[in-house]
Amino acid sequence: MKKLFALFLVIAGLPALAQSDGLVVTYERTFFWSKVYEKLTFLSEEEKSRMKNSWGVNDEGWKSKGQLVASPGQSKYVELEEEADGGYRGRKSEYLVFRDFDKARKMELEEFAGKMLLIEDTLIAPKWKVMNKIKEIGGYMCMMAVSEDSIKGQKIEAWFANDLAYGSGPERYYGLPGMILEVDVNDGEMLLTAIKVEKKPVAELLALPKKIKGKKITTTEYEKMMTTHFRDSIKSRRNPYWAVRY
């Protein structure tokens, strides 16, 4: 593995962002309800079969777009919505993840059960294990790393480009030695894939909305809330992802 990682560093290189103020990456998010229902352990095979038939054999997944703006010291991820002319613009604070790497702080805005939560706390990266695999994504050589979300029971696979030398990524995924260009959650239940990478000044794009409304909580409080929600949902034979972001 050490030889492969060294080869990856040679292939990728490090100077790509040396002459750029920042990076703007647009991602396509694809979510498959049929695959989520297939893994709900409390459903019988008959119930799973009915669910699969209701979603159809040609389930292509629900697609949306998001945008990550990153500088060496900060990053901001927001969802995008399509405009009439075919372009995209940021949504109005429905989902936002802001990281201040210099201050080791984060701010996350997320809807839970119809209520907006504003999570402000210390920035702590996921625990990653870099694997012995590489592939090309959008013209960039990427290496795979894996992690897990024990609260939601999710297996995370991320592909990062070392020559895009910012340790950021889409949504809550970051903390690797390069920009994360692809995330696969639970073997394809949800995919985040970079479809456009732009190098340009980002100071204005990193600015936060003047007003951000939501119930302020800490990461510990959020995790406790999610743990209770998932436990109670499974116990009541309900799909826990109807009320929370996957």
Explain briefly what this protein structure is.
The chain has 246 residues and is α+β, with helices and mostly antiparallel strands. Helices cover 18% and strands 40% of the residues. It has one domain.
Structure description:
There is one protein chain. This protein is α+β, with helices and mostly antiparallel strands and 246 residues long. It has one domain (2-242). Helices cover 18% and strands 40% of the residues. The protein has helices at residues 2-12, 33-38, 45-55, 219-235, and strands spanning 23-31, 62-70, 74-82, 88-90, 96-100, 105-112, 115-122, 129-137, 140-149, 154-161, 179-185, 190-199, 215-217. Strands 1, 2, 3, 4, 5, 6, 7, 8, 9, 10, 11, 12 and 13 form a 13-stranded mixed sheet that branches. A hairpin with a 5-residue loop joins strand 3 (74-82) and strand 4. The radius of gyration is 19 Å and the shape is globular. The two termini are 32 Å apart. 24% of the residues are buried. The model is unreliable at 7-20 (pLDDT under 50).
